[in-house]
Amino acid sequence: MRPAYRLLVAVVAAASLAATAHVLWAGLGPVGGPGRVTAQLAFLDDALVGGAGAAAQQQFPEGEFFLTALPALAGGYQALQPGADKDERTSALARLDRAVHVIESDAVANRFGQTERLRSGAFYQGWRLLLLDVRAELSADPGHREGAVILAQQILYAVDSAPSGLVDSYPGRYWPCDNVVAMAAVQRVTRFAPVPGLAAAQERWLARIDRLRDPATGLLPHEVDADGRPLAGPRGSSQALIQAFWPDLSPAAASDWDAFRRTFVTTRLGLVGVLEYPTGTDGPPDVDSGPLVLGVSASASAVALAAARANGDRALAATLDREAELLGIPVQWNGARRYAAGLVPIGDAFLVWARSVPEADDREGSVAAPGAVWWLWALGTAAPGMGLGVWWWQRRRAVVTRADPVATIVGTDD
Q1: Which pLDDT value is given to residue 414?
Q2: Per-residue CA distances from 348 to 71, 303, 317 (Å)
Q3: Is 95 buried (19+), middle (13-18) or exposed (0-12) by CB count in 10 A?
């Protein structure tokens, strides 16, 4: 065999072996934990210092916002866990302070426009309050806590005074998922301070929100008009986000999670994913869904990891976490962990946030959890190496036959 062919065979065989090992590690190795979160945060901290926020803004409408906010929330959630040490808490507070400073700047806030009831809208103020919540809970600073309570009251008044129960995210554009995040952020303030009038206002809000539900799926629509009339039915990208915060708000969270699983969670090519459009329907990809592969949205699947953790669906959470390892092909160097070679840091930001969302108590749902078919992927990655091995053995056997045909016929025994 020519040297070039030998090199090609060696490279393909080595790649096949490495890919199979990667599949087995992703499918059977440990699920992501605090160590991976810390390493991801190290990469994202460096990326933000290097200008990744401005670059992300050129790609996504909320690129800089999410790339700034999500790692700060992830670090905060981790620092609030039992066993977190002083250094973790100090780092988390510093990251939260930086995030709040960036997000509260006019350059960021003004991107969302001036909505009628709430400056910069439900999306901006809801996620901003989440940051203020975590910072106030972590720091115990009276000033931080007062600021969170004031914003919570502003959001609560705006939502309660809206006839449909929804405040626009951008002027004239209404997404229920952003209002769910905002109301969950208001509810989370009560972990460290009371919010006057919250219980009654939340009850009124839930009653209005229930009237918006899609008759076919029982889930909230993707987008509505000012009067609450649906403009787009339920979609996986917004539903995954709703389900990540719904347990903070509704006693019906368990049944809604089951409805989400029935409607959007599926298996494709041996892996579990979240459809962008309800089972049996199709639609085009957009900036919310990202590219669709056989109807599955990578962004919805990443956010669904957070939702599964928040709803106590640990089996699905573990599967989605493992699949992130499989498809993201992580590289960790010098304590920093990046996925997809760090080319799309906002994807790393969503993943680290999803991995850090506190896990609810495990519960048994009425919908069976699908699982990834790891053996199929292991077989697929091993096939090229196995095929080359068989070919090599047959070729060597043929060479021996041509070199000593008599020995091959009569055997080698004396």
Answers
A1: 43
A2: 9, 12, 17
A3: buried
